[in-house]
Protein 1
Amino acid sequence: MKKLSKMLMALTFVGALLAGCGSNNAAPAPQQPAQQPAQQPATPAPEQNNSGSTTTTSGEPITAVGSTALQPLVEQTAKDFMAKNQGVQIQVQGGGSGTGLSQVASGAATIGNSDIFAEEKKGIPANELVDHRVAVVGMAAAVSPKVKVDNLTKQQLIDIFTGKITNWKDVGGDDMKITLVNRPKSSGTRATFSKFALDGKEEAEGITEDSSGTVRKIIAETPGAIGYLALSYFNDSVKALKLDDVEANAENIASNKYPVWAYEHMYTKGEPTGNAKAFLEFILSEEVQKKTITELGFLPITDMKVERDAEGKVTQK
Amino acid sequence: MNHRIEGVGTNRQSLIARKMLTYNKRQFTENMTGRTIAMVCAALLVIVVLSITYFIASKGLSTFFVDGVSISEFLTQVKWDPEGEPALYGVFPFILGSFLVTALAALIAAPLGIGAAIFMTEIFPGFGKKVLKPVIELLVGIPSVVYGYVGLTLLVPFIREQFDVLGFSLLAGGLVLALMILPTITSVATDAIEAVPQDLRNASLALGATRWQTIWNVVLHSSLPGCLTAVVLGMARAFGEALAVQMVIGNTTKLPGSLLDPISTLTSGITLNMGNTIQGTPYNNALWSMALLLLLMSFVFIMILRFLGRKRLVK
């Protein structure tokens, strides 16, 4: 009996070890299928030539990794897409724009979600990636409703964020100290805001938070705080400032009258194939653009009257 | 007849011998399996530790050897701007922030924790062991994000209103960390004080010392290495804590002028930027160098702990 129990124990040990090894081996496995479509982008598989609008497509699962700002939109559309297409698997993960771009460039993810152009990130082989702009997000300077300023000129905004102006009374408000709420230096939101609202001027040091929710909470609670948020994050607790008397709304952004906006990108390595292609087409379809995207606080890419390239050059469509 | 008996004897002997032999064989294989399994476990552990160290070191050192940042510049410069032209990698504000917040937390938590430990062992042992100890052990299990969230919701506004400042500050980080490491310090210090032999206390009391003199001069002094171990363990936890701290310190990459100024720590610098930087770029490597610093610091803490442990053995 004793020996038997010993043997059993040994067996469980071995079992546990094997299980450990097993899971280790299994972990990279889901990445394998994701790599395949990315590795052979030049030769489209024959099956999808006749696809059109099939409802039962099966194949490799799609992984979409990256920007947390874009994540809710991709999650929602992935859910809708999977409901329509039985058997398609789409996994959506966050991790940040940098993670998304490097994962898709290395082939670990099918789609890399990013708030910024791949060209803007050092170390990304941008020429290997294909850009799919799926939505536009507007950003605005955000203050607590207690701040009695509704509009700032661009110069005032620059002076505030570079630390030249430190009191609201200098821009027509009450005598209240200005507190800056920043994003980390590597953040895509910071890059966009700094480029289009501050003309690339370097921001002074301030409170730094990564998540939009925390930034909003801090701005709402700290008297005299100013930060910047994507339009989808505004609610009653924070107020969006006009820039040079232009309000940050869909119409002004579409015509580029209000310049602080960015594309939401979904990058693929080479041209997308199969399910990934169908999924990207689904996001660009009128149904998603007109409904889901607007509901989640983004702007439809199809409404844009202008086009902007990675260098920031704007052309009329 | 003799012959028969002999025959039976040899038969029996050989039987026993055979039985022993087979038994030994089974025992041998059993021993071998056990030993192999244990060895594989140990080897796996060693391999994991070594490869993690190697990985972090290779990534972290490439800041200096591939990207050409000088080590002294990295450690002492105060300007952190990896995206700028030229890129500046001064992590001194992060290092200083980590040390300050850890020291502040230890300064607050050590007297409180050791005091609570004395209460639980010397002053009110019954209540202490039955009620306080389990409660404190429960506190160890609270996830750090909860501490951070409580700090963000209660502590930061409180400091803001009391001192008319931002609220996000070195003080807030120190207080949250102190609360977090208090249970660790208390429970380790309790064990250390409990280990002091009763004879020592009796001898001290017999010499005419008061209860307080006994606690201060005898109990605390003989358990000092243990209490220091408790504090260092707490500090090691505080130094490596990322989430709770990040939520309340404001993450300003600037040297703080006072307790009420916002700061950055090595951990918060890493967590805020890791998702947005690209593998292999100097910015990303700089974050790995900060991770390497953290790893080296934890080695230092462990060495201090080992040193203290040896000291206790000598006593």
Protein 2
Amino acid sequence: MWGRVLARAAVMLVIVLWTMFAAGPFLWVATISLRTTSEFMAAPYALPETWRFDKFATAWTGSGYDTYFTNSILVVFSAVAIVTAVGAMAAHALARYRFPGNRLVYLLIFSTIVLPPQITVIALFQTLAKLGLYDTRVGLTLVYAAVQLPLTVYILESFFARIPADLFDAARIDGYSEWATFWKVAFPVAMPAIATVVILNTILLWNEFLYAVVLIADDARRTLPLGIQKFMGDQLEDYGMIATGLMIAIVPVVLIYAIFSEKLIQGMTAGAVK
Amino acid sequence: MTSPRERPAWGAIVPFLLPATVFYLGLTAYPVIRTVWNSVHEVLPRREAYVGGAHYVELWADDTFWRAVRNTVTWALVAPFLEVSIALLLALALYARVPAARILRIAWFTPVLMSYVVVGIVWMWIYNYDWGAANAILRAVGLGHWAQPWLGTTDTALPALIVVTTWMWTGFNMVVLLAALHALPTEVIEAAELDRCGWGAKLTRVMVPLILPTILNLLVLSFVGKMKIFDLVWITTKGGPLWSTETVSTYVYKRAFEWSTFDLGYPSAIATVWFVIVMSFVAVLTWMVRRQQKLEY
Amino acid sequence: MTPRRAMPGCALAAVLAAAALAAPAASQEITLWSHWAAEQPKRQFIEEAIRRFEAAHPGVTVRATWYEKNALYAALRTALRAGQGPDVFYAEPDQVEYVQNGFLLDLSQGIDWANVEPWAREIWTHGGKPYGLPLEAWTVELYVNTRLLSELGWQMPANLQFTHGQLLEIVRKARERNIVPISAGVGDRPFPGAFLTHETLLMRLGRVDYGRLLKGEIRWDDPRVVESLRAVRALVEARAFPPGVATLQLGQSHVYFHTNPGTVFFPMGSWYTSRAFNPPDQGGQPADFPLGILRMPAPDNAACPTCRTIAVGGSYVINAASRHPDKAKAFLNAFTTPEMGALWLQNVMVQTGIKADVGMVTGPRAGYFRDLAAANEGSEYFFGIPLQILQGRARDTFTQVVNTAFISGQVTVEEVVRQMNAAMGAR
């Protein structure tokens, strides 16, 4: 009996400690974001005496965040839509059909997951410049789709491969074309996995920095991570304001996750990331 | 369980694969091939000259490169182990049905939702010598003499950054492991309980072996991520002090963009060598994972 | 913005709009990519130049994009390589690779060089041709909190220069009273930690031999070099720098000097003003801060105690691939007038490569310029900090070893010598 209680206490201790460690930095930044820099420097770990929510309005209006937000949403959502469609089609073909070179194609796509992006970004830039897509949101969108393609195919292929063949046989007997089979049978069945890659890709691309730095030049087309960096530069040593800027960047993603986390978990429980 | 793959039906395969192939060839394969081609050339904006293996010979004797390799491999071996083992511990804790599990899960996952730009800034504050949380805690518990500029000392900078990636990614690994645990067939767990297995035995003999493929997959994913790590180092230490946090990616970037030369040949050679090394590691690891999965079926 | 100020802008916009309507085909756009997104005084100065240029050249507009330095460099490297990029962009004279690869337009013709300081033009000259318009120039200064100094029982020396021995005494005295003696920020910059070391080397060796040291013609185990390094090492061992110096960032090091906790000295480029003269809640110094300016300390047996470094910083260059080279040159000429030089001094509070009369600076900061001039009187200048002269591995090693590890006490003099010799030989 006592052993049980002790074990329970140990588990709770681990949980409490890790929660403090995991959430502490975020909460600390949250308190700083509501205080001025002089208040912060006087007592770095105090709670806000006055809750200065107006700092968020100042940060928002004084920084062009609205432009960066719109750009991020446009680029990231289009890229995720493209990569999901393109990736799912490829994963389906690789998982379902036996053809010479199937595994080679899979391996080639997979191998690029490990590619360090710092070096290929040059050749990418040259390609985009040739196509007249440099410094355009379309160009960045296409690159984002290409970058996330390997991971998307990798995750979806393993899921599609486990859809029972009987399902497809039944579809064929019902007179579905291959195309319709994919969109009406395979895609809906794979929804948990699709949801997972959509959420993962959204989070990863929302925070992407390197490609954006190199492929976007004009301020009107910059995405949020570039905006954050610019904002940091503008504020010099104004920690209070930097923290406000950080919170503006963090909160939407955390909200998206909080709302959709059940979907993500479902996808994973169904074996999407296995 | 795997569905048998069907005969070639090129009429269906080609349209399905075509868009991905176009993306892949244009925006992934071409840059890669170009990189390999670059690595045997001196690549200046208006002059490209074939130099054969010269860059590779130079690389062999490049101390900074080897130091970067040592740092990166250390990171890539230590971090996955830390992340996945702590994550497993946490996942088991949540699996044991503690209160407020959903909130905990979100709290633990939050770090991975932040970009490295944000994470880098926050942790530079935490490691700040004068008012950072790390030293503040040490001083509060009377260990003030341990206070350090954690990112500024050659001995502590790399471990301090490994702590950051562990902080960031453990939650992600935990969520995946928890999902895997919940996906376990209940009959197996019940059977183990009927057999009056102890909690420890149930854990080591039944649950962990069953989710081993997931664990291995996560180790591979984390390993690959650390072999490429760039943003965090770039924002916090830029590889310093004294190259103690230099990684292969930061060195490639420095050679390509920071050193006063436009030559892309040498950095491309580094990237090529690194690509081959990482690929062989991953091939071996994936082979192990696949073998494990075969055993399962 | 007050209505009165807005008026000329509106009038100008109306004129431009009319011009654009009248002759849409004739309108030309010059693109400018510039650093200084965050440095308001410089940015306002450039924007003023753009306004004047556009008013004088109807039908021509300048579209400026403001960057942080690192983002700008990354964008430029890729854009230039693909034969694209803006007409005019920001560059610094150490970026010789731009010249070597033919990216910059030769500015021999069409620029009003009579109004540019000859030495500043010289720094941008390669193979007899100038390639950049030197806007920003700066010197290495030793800023001092005169109140703290007198509390420690010392006065500003008459010649505005301590010896290394005196500095060491002040450092020890400050430490006894729990005051950090010297602030420095090297966490995010590759050069401020080296100021004290390279100025010591320059004074000990003299201009010629110091230049040879940086070219690799004198080895780092030369006794004069070792002696200079030992002088700096003595300060490090006396705990002259903050314990967290290796990660202290440039902006933080300013606050560390003038506000919290406050140090006696601060070796810094003369662009100290661009941060320190901000309002205090934006990282600026307190309103009543007792700022003094000294020369760097002279080492024993100095070959040239009056030697010091002057450097050209932010400059504008023209893309060789520009489709409007003449218009771009006309734009650069918007800067080369004595009035614009004076406006730069007045606004930015840093020296400039444009000929300008310091006497034309008026207002509350005029005193600062008098102090700066006093500290620079009779100086013999060496052009460029080591980072602008060294390249490749030598530059990287200098950054890691001399800028950071040496002043944070993580390497010995012997180790510095060994690493620098190896790196200079590797080039």
